[in-house]
Amino acid sequence: MRSFFGLYAPLTDTWRVYDNSFQSGPVLIARGGENIEENIYNLDLWNVMRKKYYEYNKKNIDELFDNGSEIDEALQQAVKESLLQHKKAGNIIVSWEKNKIELSLLYPNLIWRVDV
């Protein structure tokens, strides 16, 4: 739902959200769009979904940078995934070391272990 509320809904001309947990088929929860009034058909469920989105997004950028641990963890995970992708593809990795432009090549056979 983060992607829906944060990315897709603001960009679409029209949108609809369904609850597809019923055996009888999907049930419309809400609909809206750029120039369309938002219509809510299941207010309780809609509020639960919105609450989850806003709770996730309530940290502001200053809080994230002050703490830093979430950013560090995300960067570490991104590096691990990138190394694994390069190894699987047989690509060479170029790195910057010792705070200067000193390029090192890391060949796929030298990437020993990447835990993702």
Helix content: 40-55%
Biggest β-sheet description: 3 strands, antiparallel
Mean pLDDT level? 77
Radius of gyration, in Å, reads: 22 Å
Total strand count, please? 5
> Low-confidence segments, ≥5 residues, pLDDT <50?
none
* Measured distance between first and last alpha carbons: 25 Å
* Sheet with most strands: strand arrangement: 1-2-3
Indicate the proportion of strand residues. 25-35%
Number of domains: 2
Q: Structural class of the helices, strands and pairings?
A: alpha+beta
Shape: elongated
Number of helices: 4
Order of helices and strands: HEEEHHHEE
Describe this structure in words.
- There is one protein chain.
- The longest helix is centred in the last third of the chain and has 21 residues, at 69-89.
- The protein is built from 4 helices and 5 strands; from the N terminus they run H-E-E-E-H-H-H-E-E.
- The chain has helices at residues 2-11, 43-56, 61-67, 69-89, and strands at 14-19, 27-33, 36-40, 93-97, 100-106.
- The mean pLDDT is 77.
- With 116 residues, it is an alpha+beta fold.
- The chain has 2 domains: 2-58, no CATH class; 63-110, no CATH class.
Keywords:
single chain, 116 residues, alpha+beta, 2 domains, three-stranded antiparallel sheet, two-stranded antiparallel sheet, 4 helices, 5 strands
